[in-house]
Amino acid sequence: MNLKKYIAELKRRKVFKPAITYLIVAWLIAQVFSVVFPAFNAPNYFMKTLIIALIIGFPLNLILAWIYELTPQGIKKTKNMTAKASISTQTNAILNNGTDKLVVLPFQNISSSNGNNYFSNGLTEEIIVRLSGIEELDIASRSTSMRYRDSKLDNESLGRELNARYLLGGTVRRHKNDLRISTELIDLKKDTTLWAEIYQGNITDVFVIQEQVSKKIVKSLQLKLSPKEKVALGKKATLNIEAHDANLKAREFLFKYTKSYLLLAIDLFQNAIDLDPK
């Protein structure tokens, strides 16, 4: 078990909270008895014994927190609990083999230039926006997704940390007007790839690719769409590739949350509107 995976497991079992609580309580006990023992002329070894007992109690507290969890019916072993009994939402999800939540991981830019990061980020965001309109689908937000752009966690740990069953990931390679996008949809519960595909074409094909990826996900997850959702899934904000590109750059700057980048974002948004007023 690598360090990050181990830390994720500690968080899932909620070990940190009882550990911190124990340290605070132990410190308070030590402070109180450092006053009480001298007041009653207690031998010096009383305080030493107390300190040793508190030190020994710390790892025991961690072990108990690792093995057991507090439930409405009392303290029970995590592996012996029913999902309903657990008061931890993360543990509850794991005992239920996770939810059907989908997480669209940030598409990785594998172009020769880092200047295309805005494009891969924008592609990720637009797929999330398309899918978020489906009532039957539970999908993680853009902000949640972007936190895992450079994550080194394996798929199992990601699914556990995000309380998700499905992961969509991919790569983007852009060279001038040539575009190559690879995608993969993973079912974490079954540890299988539901589908993987490579799309190649011109930069103007990005709208079609987004729609195809979204429809593939709907089909793979066997989601039932309303007529309104079907229309929304295929809707395109613009067909002007230059306006689309300016809009992606503007959104990239917008999320940097500084005044200078905000001003750049405003100029780019205005440029996009000028290129495609509709």
Distance from first to last alpha carbon: 54 Å
Task: Give the SSE string.
Answer: HHHEEHEEHHHEEEHHHH
CATH architecture of the largest domain: 3-Layer(aba) Sandwich
Instruction: Compute the number of structural domains.
Output: 3
Note the total helix count: 11
- CATH topology name of the largest domain: Rossmann fold
User: Biggest sheet, open or closed, and with what strands and sense?
Assistant: 5 strands, mixed
Q: Helical content, roughly?
A: 40-55%
Uncertain parts: 81-85, 93-98
Q: How many β strands by DSSP? A: 7
The global form is elongated
Based on CA atoms alone, the radius of gyration comes out at 26 Å
What's the quick description here?
The chain has 278 residues and is α/β, with parallel strands linked by helices. The protein is built from 11 helices and 7 strands.
